[in-house]
Amino acid sequence: MAGWPGMPALRRCGSRPSEAQLPKIEGLWDEFTDGTGTETSLRRWMDKRGYGASPTWLDADTARKVIGALTNMVSRKLEKEARHG
Predict the structure, then answer these.
(1) If you compute the radius of gyration of the chain from its CA atoms, what whole number of angstroms results?
(2) What is the SS3 assignment for 83?
(3) If phi over 0 gives left and psi between -120 and 50 gives alpha, with beta otherwise, what is residue 54?
């Protein structure tokens, strides 16, 4: 990992997210926000909930938790839409 100019590279703790986890997070966020969500809004949502400031900095376990939270949010949204038409 390169880091910013003049700054040492940061090391991750734990394992990195799988290749499937990051696109899954982005897809769930897109579904939850009806395509209006941005990378910035996803980062803000994650940071407010204590997951960190970027999906790319997650470890595999935390990525799994973010996917679970987003999956629940999408499910609740779809249930609400089904009730209200």
Answers:
(1) 15
(2) helix
(3) beta
d(CA 34, CA 4): 33
Q: What would the two tokens of residue 31 be? A: 């579904």
Two tokens at 61? 């376990």
SS3 43: helix
Return all residues near 65 (Cβ < 8 A) that are at least 6 apart: 51
pLDDT (average), residues 48-59: 92
Backbone phi and psi for residue 58, each to the nearest 5 degrees, phi listed first: -70, 155
Share of the chain above pLDDT 70, in %: 82
Helix (DSSP H) and strand (DSSP E) numbers for the chain: 3, 0
Whether 25 and 74 have beta carbons less than 8 Å apart is answered as no
Tell me the torsion sign for CA atoms 22, 27, 33, 36: positive
Please tell me whether residue 76 adopts helix, strand or coil conformation. helix
